[in-house]
Amino acid sequence: MDLQYPLELLGTFVFAISGALAVRDKEHDVFGAGFTGFVTAIGGGTLRDLLLDSHPLVWIGDIHFLYAILLGVLAAFVFPKILSRLRKTMFLFDTLGIAFFTVLGVEKSLSLGFRPEIAAIMGMFSAVMGGVIRDTLVNEIPILFRKEIYASACLAGAILYLVLNYFALQRDINLLISISVIISIRLIAVRYKLSLPRLD
Amino acid sequence: MDLQYPLELLGTFVFAISGALAVRDKEHDVFGAGFTGFVTAIGGGTLRDLLLDSHPLVWIGDIHFLYAILLGVLAAFVFPKILSRLRKTMFLFDTLGIAFFTVLGVEKSLSLGFRPEIAAIMGMFSAVMGGVIRDTLVNEIPILFRKEIYASACLAGAILYLVLNYFALQRDINLLISISVIISIRLIAVRYKLSLPRLD
Amino acid sequence: MDLQYPLELLGTFVFAISGALAVRDKEHDVFGAGFTGFVTAIGGGTLRDLLLDSHPLVWIGDIHFLYAILLGVLAAFVFPKILSRLRKTMFLFDTLGIAFFTVLGVEKSLSLGFRPEIAAIMGMFSAVMGGVIRDTLVNEIPILFRKEIYASACLAGAILYLVLNYFALQRDINLLISISVIISIRLIAVRYKLSLPRLD
C-alpha cells in the first residue's frame, strides 16, 4: 500500500491543525497554539513508541513529520476563520485520522512482535492519546471521557482488524474494513448522540 | 517468596478496581472508567520502568497483568454498588497495594543495579504515580497533594527497607517490617487525620 | 567550558527552589512541595532524554543532581519567606536557568547525532517542560500558555545557537550570545508585558 506514508503525513498535518485550533477561544498566544498542535499531532504515536521502546520516535527519525506539523500549525494561523468554518470538514478529517492511526498503530505493534492484546491498546493509544495529552495540558476533561463514542470506536476497530488478521484476511481488504468500521461507528455515534452507558 | 507474583497480580487487580470506581460520580462512561482503571493499575510501574529504561514494561511483557486489569474493571462494572459499599475494605486493599508496590519497586530498582537513592524514589513512584496520573487525567488535584500522609509513607517505608537491607537483614523479615511500617503509618494517619505541615 | 557542570547543578538547585515555592499558597504539605520541586527540576531534561532514548537519565546516572534538588527543596522549606521576598532574584535565577538549560539541551541533542530541528525542540523542552509538568500536576494552566514570551524565547535562542553553530562560530562565544539573547528577550518581554499575538 503505497498510500500509507503520504496518508500518515496527511494525518499528522490534520491533527496539527485541529490541535492548534482547539485552543483558539482560550488565552493562548500563537506559540501556545503551535505547541498544542504539535503535541496533538505527535502525542499518540510518541506514547506508543515510548511504551514499546521503539526508537527513534517517528517524528524524530523522519523530519518530514515535523514539517507536516509546521505546515498544519501555519495553516491554522493563516486561515483560522476558514478552517473553523470548515468544522464539518475538520471533523471528517479527524475521524479519518483516528481510524487510520488506529490501524497503523496496530500494524506497527504487530510488526515489532507484540501480542495482539497489546497491539489493540497501542492502536487506540496512537489515535487518541495526542488529544488526551492536549486536553490535559489545557486543563480540560480529556476528549476520551466526554465525547460520544470515540476511543472505544478505535478499540473496536483495532480488535476487528486483529480478528480478521487472525483469519488471514488479505491486508488491504482488512484495512479497508477496519477503517470503515471505525469511521462508521464514530459518525453514527455523533449523528445520533450515542454514548456508552455510565457506571451507576 | 513464591507469593510475590500472585500478590503483584492481585495488587494490579485491586488498583484497577479502585481506578475504575474513582470516576463513578463523574460524567464518565464505562469506557472512560475502564481506561481510568487501566491507567491507575499500570501508571506507577510504567513510569518507573520508562525512567529506568527497563523493557519490556511489566504489563507488555506478561499478558496476565492485562487480564488482571480487565477482571478488575469488569468487577467494578458488575458490582459497583457492592464495591462502593466496601469502601473500608477497598481502602485496606489500596493500603496493602501501595505498601507492597513500594517494596517491589525498590527491589526491582536495586536488582537492575541502581543506587539506593534512586531505588527509594522508584519504590514510591511505583506505588503512587498511577493514582497521580489518573487524578491529573480527570482534572483533580492529585492524591499526592491532598491526602493525609500517603506518598510520604511509601517513601519512608522504601528508605526503611533500604536501611535494613544495607544492614543485611534477611529479605523476608525486611519485607514484612517495611510493608508493615508503610501500612501502619498510613492507617494511623487516616485514623487521626494526620498531615504533614504545610510550607508557610 | 569547565563551568558547565557546576552551572547545571546550580540550575537544578534553583529550579527545585522555584518548584517547591510554586505551591506555597496552595493546600500542599511539605512533601507535596518537595515533590513539586523535584518534578520541576528534572521534568524537562527527563522528557528530553526519554524522547531521545538517552539513558541513564541525567539525575539517575549522576546522584549529585538528586542532592542539588534536595538542597533546593530544603532551602525552600527553611527560608520560604526570605526566598519569596527575593522574588526578583528568583525570577532572574529562573531566567538564567531556562537560558542555560536551553543551550545545554541543544548541545546534548546535537552531540547525540540528532538533526538541528530536533535539537531546537529538545533545547526548549529541557528548559520549560519541567514547569509545564508541574503546572499540569497542580491543575494550573501551564506557564507556557499564560506567560509573557517564555518558551518562545527559549526556542528563538535555540535556533540562534544552531544558526551560529552552522556558521562555525566558536562555541564559547556562541553560548554567550545565545544565552544572552534568551535572557534579553525574556527580560524585555516581562518589563514591557510583551506577549505574542493570539489566534483570532
Describe the structure in your own words.
The structure is a homotrimer of 200-residue chains. By secondary structure, the first copy, chain A, is mostly helical. Chain A has one domain. Chain A is 78% helix and 0% strand. Chain A contains 10 helices and no strands. Chain A has helices at residues 4-22, 30-52, 58-61, 64-78, 80-85, 87-111, 116-137, 143-146, 151-166, 171-191. In chain A, helix 1 packs across helix 6 (87-111), helix 6 crosses helix 9 (151-166) and helix 6 (87-111) runs antiparallel to helix 10 (171-191). The first copy, chain A, is globular. Chains B and C meet through helix 2, helix 7, helix 8 and helix 9 of B and helix 2 and helix 4 of C.
Short description:
Chain A is mainly α and 200 residues long.
SSE order and pairing:
The structure is a homotrimer of 200-residue chains.
Chain A lengths: L3 H19 L7 H23 L5 H4 L2 H15 L1 H6 L1 H25 L4 H22 L5 H4 L4 H16 L4 H21 L9
Largest interface, C-beta within 8 A: B-C, 28 and 29 residues
Major sheet summary line of chain A: none
Oligomer: homotrimer
Classification by helices and strands of chain A: mainly alpha
Give the rounded overall mean pLDDT of chain A.
Answer: 88
The 3D shape of chain A can be described as globular
Percent range for helical residues of chain A?
Answer: over 70%
Low-confidence stretches of chain A: none
Strand segment count of chain A: 0
The helix/strand order of chain A is HHHHHHHHHH
Number of helices of chain A: 10
What's the N-to-C terminus distance of chain A? 45 Å
Total domain count of chain A: 1
Percent of residues in beta strands of chain A: under 5%
Specify Rg of chain A, calculated over alpha carbons.
Answer: 16 Å
